[in-house]
Write a structure and sequence with these properties.
Nucleotidyltransferase, domain 5, globular, 6 helices
């Protein structure tokens, strides 16, 4: 018969490395919606999520693949696309009368000037109030795409898509 201590099995999402429950509890205790940013190599997703006992409710959503409908011709996984995706999510949340949120970066490593903070900067410019430091945001040159090789085309395209998002000239879902 075993005489050792009882082993408590962690939650499945914690074992899989998908959820940090301590951080999630801190975010939920603020009772504010969360601005959630998730990334892949070709896509950025931004959501404003509100906690509910039955499950989280998505209040506003944007995806970098939606930028193609607005005329974005470049890659959807870079910093300018992340900024525009955050801007789109920020303007949508502003239309739904969501004023502020807390940032939720998940289990990603916090790196100064990354795509995650590019999306956060876009949401700030879109009208959301999110507590964060200006030091971690990417520079204006990186946001507008000056660091990318075919920069003339991307900068013009960036400004055109940004104008469409801010004026709401094209209806998006």
């Amino acid at each position: 018969m075993a005489r050792s201590k009882v082993h408590k099995v962690q939650h499945r999402r914690r074992r899989e490395g998908k959820t940090d429950y301590r951080l999630r509890l801190k975010l939920l205790r603020s009772k504010k919606p969360r601005f959630v940013v998730r990334k892949s190599s070709n896509n950025i997703t931004c959501q404003v999520i509100e906690y509910s006992n039955r499950g989280d409710n998505v209040l506003a959503y944007s995806d970098s693949r939606e930028l193609k409908k607005l005329g974005w011709k470049a890659h959807a996984g870079n910093i300018p696309a992340a900024y525009l995706t955050g801007l789109l999510c920020g303007t949508r949340s502003k239309k739904k009368k969501i004023g502020e949120a807390v940032p939720d970066m998940g289990l990603y490593t916090s790196t100064k000037g990354s795509r995650l903070y590019g999306a956060l900067k876009g949401a700030l410019d879109g009208g959301l109030k999110i507590p964060c430091s200006e030091d971690i945001m990417p520079s204006e040159e990186r946001i507008s795409g000056k660091h990318i090789q075919d920069k003339k085309d991307i900068q013009k395209n960036f400004e055109a898509v940004k104008k469409k998002i801010l004026t709401g000239s094209r209806k998006t879902p």
